[in-house]
């Protein structure tokens, strides 16, 4: 029964995944009234059940065969006859394959096998999709060979017998099982269909028209460009925690469910760039493909022969920081064993499988070296949640209407905190903290104005949730964890061994379960156990926090001091941007007081002075202020910059302003900007957040500060509001001089 139940589940899943949300709701209501032998599934179980839940309920309640009958009738009653017809056709084809392979005249009836090869019966009884009548299809097993059986949905016992088209079905089913659930940042597993909340995605060149990430939006990503050429590389970009990885996983899941790219892509593979770069030894692209498959007999050679029908989803290409040695030639053979970095770089530059489709995720605009590797990418900005979807996220998170509404109202009353919740990672932290506080009968008790303050709030909630007797121990463990995070960030490491944890006495520590996830990987001789932070942004936050937790009298480690974070090649420091922002956010007097209260130690004032000197040093060698009347040099709306100019992103001054904004301490920002007599921003298309950051810094700047804007403009969505950039900045001064 179990193989038949598995086959029934696969057929049902394929049918129900084709339904829209409205049709799925109608299906549930019709199923409530579907009685078999006087029994029907109770409404309490059906209400709120998603696709996977419905499949399981049908098979368990009615059994495999009847579940398919009931589903088919219910689909017809729900007026989705096309899906009912497809289910009937797939079921018939599956039964026929079984009948042919076992030598059955019809499912359930055995025929005596003659000693010679069997031929398909002629006439109308032949099954649709069967081999030609004259083709031998079965040779009886030898006296010692067990019979080769095929059960519904499972295919032949030897996967090598499967064609590419047959293996495609098996692989899709494997992906649906593997990616049906995703791990939250606290290691809880949730169904992707229940937790994924639509994101706003803005495609170039229509960046002002952000669309919600439905099937239509995802399908558009690999449409044709303005010249009618097929897009081969799409870059999903956006800041940390904005939802890029979740969107990429949802694209893979929807492809496997037959909702995306079904006429263009036969196989899609999800590769974590960080894991690939940390993979020891060498591997080939064929090895990586095989690792994704449910067995080691996948027809990899045939897959690679049709590379134009392959999609590689590369998550986190920002990890490609250091260039490969000049003598390392690109990898052009998918069977050639090479380092993970070389295989990845060859895929990105289209030296390897140039016809394959690539979907990459990255943080913001890529640094020059990474941008040079990407071959004409179509960029799409992930913009986070809309107001409507923020509310949906709260309801999906709490799964209790009263709690969700209570939590949502309390956050919406805090305007600044609510505005930060457009970032899914921040929204998750806020919901997690609120859930803890609601369990204790409390409300969100303080305002949070920046991302840093929200992350600190989460860490504080972990400390507060511990028994009073364990508080001091937990504080010590967190300080050690911060050192581990800093070592990893500066060394470009996200994965840590048990030896790393033992060195800091963190094995078995309580913070290990709160902030680290354990991963077991098969090794050469034994299983390799590694640990990584529940989210990369948490590692970066704790790394920044480590600088404030240093003892004033302790000698500084030269390798991990503040200089290693702030100085060096800006391009190679691209992965340190978020850590730097967090560091600035922790320097405010208010945050430092909170650190002292939560961690039971004095925050290092020395670090604040070092950071202040570093900002002021950025002004050395600055050009003199522009003559009066040249404060704003805007690019005419009709002009186009050269390709070389478009590729350049001179956003370092803007990134510095973001760091200063994160402090929310006017006196510190005023003092820091005294060392910068002139701020020059070039070729910036100001978003709403950019304007908020720039406006805040303009309000804090000292007298005589010059701001020069070269070829800057408002983003298209802001231009429609008919207020010029300068008027907006002047308005932000609130009438002051």
UniProtKB/TrEMBL annotation:
Region described as Disordered: spans on this chain: 121-161, 621-647
A Pfam family reported for this protein in Swiss-Prot or TrEMBL: NLRC4_HD2
BP terms from Gene Ontology: acute inflammatory response; regulation of inflammatory response; response to bacterium
Chain intervals with Low complexity compositional bias: 147-161
Protein origin, superkingdom: Eukaryota
Residues of the NACHT domain: 232-436
SUPFAM superfamilies in the record: DEATH domain, P-loop containing nucleoside triphosphate hydrolases, RNI-like
Any Gene Ontology CC annotation: canonical inflammasome complex
Biased composition range(s): Pro residues: 130-146
Annotated InterPro entries: DAPIN, DEATH-like_dom_sf, NACHT_NTPase, NLRP_HD2, NLRP_innate_immun_reg, NOD1/2_WH, P-loop_NTPase
PANTHER family reported in the protein's UniProt record: NACHT, LRR AND PYD DOMAINS-CONTAINING PROTEIN 12 (PTHR45690), NACHT, LRR AND PYD DOMAINS-CONTAINING PROTEIN 6 (PTHR45690:SF1)
Protein name as annotated: NLR family pyrin domain containing 6
Origin species: Capra hircus (Goat)
């Amino acid at each position: 029964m179990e193989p038949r139940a598995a086959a029934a589940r696969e057929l049902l899943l394929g049918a129900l995944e084709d339904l829209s949300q409205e049709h799925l709701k109608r299906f549930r209501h019709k199923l409530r009234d579907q009685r078999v032998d006087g029994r029907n599934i109770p409404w309490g179980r059906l209400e709120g059940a998603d696709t996977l839940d419905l499949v399981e309920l049908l098979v368990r309640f009615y059994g495999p065969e009847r579940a398919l009958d009931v589903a088919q009738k219910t689909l017809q009653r729900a007026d989705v006859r096309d899906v009912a017809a497809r289910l009937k056709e797939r079921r018939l084809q599956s039964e026929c394959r079984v009948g042919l392979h076992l030598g059955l005249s019809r499912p359930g009836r055995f025929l005596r096998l003659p000693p010679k090869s069997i031929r398909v019966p002629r006439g109308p009884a032949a099954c649709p999709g069967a081999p030609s009548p004259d083709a031998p299809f079965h040779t009886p097993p030898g006296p010692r060979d067990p019979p080769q059986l095929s059960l519904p949905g499972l295919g032949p016992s030897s996967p090598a017998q499967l064609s590419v088209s047959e293996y495609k079905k098996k692989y899709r089913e494997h992906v649906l099982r593997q990616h049906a659930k995703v791990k939250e940042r606290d290691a809880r597993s949730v169904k992707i269909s229940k937790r994924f909340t639509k994101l706003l995605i803005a495609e170039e060149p229509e960046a002002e028209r952000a669309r919600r990430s439905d099937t239509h939006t995802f399908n558009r990503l690999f449409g044709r460009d303005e010249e009618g050429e097929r897009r081969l590389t799409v870059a999903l970009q956006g800041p940390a925690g904005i939802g890029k990885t979740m969107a990429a996983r949802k694209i893979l899941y929807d492809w496997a469910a037959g909702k995306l790219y079904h006429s263009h892509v036969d196989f899609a593979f999800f590769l974590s760039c960080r894991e690939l770069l940390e993979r020891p030894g060498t591997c080939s692209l064929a090895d990586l493909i095989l690792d994704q498959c449910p067995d080691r007999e996948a027809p990899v050679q045939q897959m690679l022969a049709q590379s134009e029908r392959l999609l590689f989803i590369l998550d986190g290409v920002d990890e490609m920081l250091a260039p490969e040695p000049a003598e390392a030639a690109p990898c052009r053979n998918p069977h050639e064993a090479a380092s993970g970095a070389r295989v990845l770089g060859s895929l990105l530059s289209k030296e390897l499988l140039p016809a394959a489709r690539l979907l990459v995720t990255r943080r913001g605009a890529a640094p020059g070296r990474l941008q040079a590797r990407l071959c004409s990418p179509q960029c799409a900005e992930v913009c986070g949640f809309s107001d409507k979807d923020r509310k949906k996220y709260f309801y999906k998170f709490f799964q209790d209407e009263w709690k969700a509404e209570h939590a949502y109202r309390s956050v919406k009353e805090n305007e600044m905190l609510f505005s930060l919740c457009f970032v899914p990672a921040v929204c998750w932290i806020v919901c997690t903290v609120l859930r803890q506080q609601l369990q204790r009968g409390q409300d969100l008790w303080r305002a949070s104005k920046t991302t840093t303050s929200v992350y600190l709030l989460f860490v504080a909630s972990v400390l507060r949730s511990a028994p009073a007797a364990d508080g001091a121990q937990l504080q010590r463990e967190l300080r050690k964890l911060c050192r581990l995070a800093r070592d990893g960030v500066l060394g470009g490491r996200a994965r840590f061994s048990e030896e790393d944890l033992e060195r800091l006495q963190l094995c078995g520590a309580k913070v290990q379960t709160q902030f680290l996830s354990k991963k077991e990987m098969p090794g050469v001789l034994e299983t390799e156990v590694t640990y990584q932070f529940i989210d990369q942004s948490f590692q970066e936050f704790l790394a920044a926090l480590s600088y404030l937790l240093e003892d004033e009298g302790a000698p500084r480690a030269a390798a991990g001091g503040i200089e290693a974070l702030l100085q060096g090649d800006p391009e190679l420091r691209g992965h340190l941007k978020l850590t730097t922002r967090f560091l600035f956010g922790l320097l405010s007097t208010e945050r430092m007081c909170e650190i002292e209260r939560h961690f039971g130690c004095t925050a290092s004032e020395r670090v604040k002075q070092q950071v202040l000197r570093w900002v002021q040093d950025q002004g050395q060698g600055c050009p003199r202020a522009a003559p009066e009347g040249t404060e704003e040099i805007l690019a005419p709306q009709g002009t186009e910059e050269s390709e070389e100019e478009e590729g350049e992103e001179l956003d370092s001054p803007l990134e510095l302003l973001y760091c200063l904004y994160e402090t929310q301490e006017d006196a510190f920002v005023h003092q820091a900007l005294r060392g910068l007599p002139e701020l020059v921003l070039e070729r910036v298309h100001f978003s709403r957040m950019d304007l908020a950051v720039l406006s805040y810094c303009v309000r804090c700047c000292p007298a005589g500060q010059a701001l020069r804007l070269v070829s800057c403009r408002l983003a298209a969505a802001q231009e429609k509001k008919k207020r010029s950039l300068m008027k907006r900045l002047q308005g932000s001064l609130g009438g002051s001089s």
